[in-house]
Amino acid sequence: MFRIRGTIAVLSAAVVLAAACGNSPSGDGAAPTPDTAAPTTAAPATTAADASEPDAAVEASESDASEPDEPTEPAVDEPASAEEASEPEAVDEPATAEAPEPETDAPAPTTTTEPVVEEPVDPYPHRHDFVPLEGVPGVTDDEIRVAVIGTETNNILGTCILPCFHTGIQAYFDYVNDAGGVYGRRLVIGELLDDELGFNQQRSLEVIDGNNSLAAFQATLLPLGWGPLNDAGIPTFTWNIHGAEAVNRDNIFGNHVIGCPTCTIRSFVWIVSQAGASRVGLLGYGVSETSKVCTKAFADSIDLYGPDLGMEVAYFNDNVAFGLPNGIGPEVTQMVDAGVDFIATCMDLNAMLTLAQELERQGVRDQITLLHPNSYDREFVAAAGDLFDGDYALLVFAAFEYEVDSPLRHAYDQWVPANGGPVAEQTLVGWINADLFVTGLLEAGPGFDRQSIIHSLNQITYDAGGLINPVDWSRQHTAVEPFVYDHAYALHCTSSVRMEGGTFVGFQPEPWMCWPGDTEEWSEPTPTDFAG
């Protein structure tokens, strides 16, 4: 443990950066058109629902069959009597002239037709077609097996990483298996490996050498095994807090894309404006280049947009000791003296707790708003009570506090708690990763293998049923450079929440607030719902 302490410090800062800057590309080309494909396995939600309610369908069918519509009798006038017919004097000439006009009051014969109800179209009608396969790792006639690797032991953050990630994947597999699986096979986690923080490469090599899994899933603080997995041609689905380990690797698929760590971040500046702040303090770890880059990006953002919005950087320190072993009292005092009313950091959630407690100790907690890069944890915030009241968190997925009319989200809300998992970031990451994997299977077709899954995913745009900013995998494996938009998000978006009373609350009109991705110019964001 002590042997890798320096490395651990870098890892923790990298985790913080993912939340702070991960979904903050500077621009991303033209926005997607309404008919841009965004494959996701939302379709099993319909299948699963239909499969779980057979009695309702039978009842409806029997009800319709037992009560046929009675045909409506057309109205028939009684013929006039002979006596009435023999009295022509009762009809004068004008009446005779008008008589040829057809009667319009008589009801026309009617028929009853059932309303036409369009069944949802399954984008993958072949999802249950079985094709015998030989020589595909992890695939038998009955199962599709994958490996899950992550950090549990020696987790320096203290948050739920591997267990929650595993739960999200397993819940999604149960959801799909309940609807018949994929291509007549059940989805199975065949290998569950704890990398114990320092052994991610070794665990990855075990998966490669064993060759018993079709794909790999990774949620780790030290991603030393991503390169070997990519080079071995194994499709790998990750908690992508490590942008540098994912870029330019076409076999690595994250829950989102870290666009451009050095680019300016309009969503950050927008949050500062929502807080009504004007003097910004910035903090980052000195031992981590990643944390330094993140802190500098915040400063560049204020420098670029601040003059027009009445903001400025009042305090900057990217040399804070990792873990705050001596507290952060002197730094807070300096920020108070500088008139800071908003603090953004590139530090972990434990450091944010220490910072908030020091602000309270110095009597200024209610005067300074914090932006949390990695504190979207309900248990953590609840334990803090009202300490974080008024603070903000920037997220890379649609926050749970917003209504998202997504079948994938509705299924998550049902299946993850049923598997004993919390509604939390790590379970959702596992769920999204699993959906992306199954999407790759369905895109590849019944004769799938590793390469066809990778090839198929690298041709689509994926939005997890509206739960993430859409990723165009045909171009977003490549690193993004400032002011170059070829490989960036089509829209720069954020899903943000505010902390109140030990919980999170939504304040945006829609789950996402977005800016054009092909420009750096400032504008007010557009409320957006990718599921809508």
Largest sheet, if any?
9 strands, mixed
CA(first)-CA(last) distance: 47 Å
The CATH topology of the domain at 266-401 and 495-528 is what? Rossmann fold
- How would you state the average pLDDT, rounded? 84
Strand content: 15-25%
Q: What's the number of extended β-strand segments?
A: 16
Q: Architecture of the domain at 266-401 and 495-528 in CATH?
A: 3-Layer(aba) Sandwich
| Number of helical regions | 17
What brief labels describe this structure?
532 residues; alpha/beta; Rossmann fold; 9-stranded mixed beta sheet; 5-stranded parallel beta sheet; disordered N terminus
Q: How would you sum up this structure, described in words?
A:
By secondary structure, this protein is α/β, with parallel strands linked by helices. The strands form 3 sheets. Strands 6, 7, 8, 9, 10, 13, 14, 15 and 16 form a 9-stranded mixed β-sheet that branches. Strands 2-1-3-4-5 form a 5-stranded parallel β-sheet, sandwiched between helices. It has a domain at 266-401 and 495-528: Rossmann fold, CATH 3.40.50.2300. It has 17 helices and 16 strands. Strand 13 (491-500) and strand 14 form a beta hairpin.
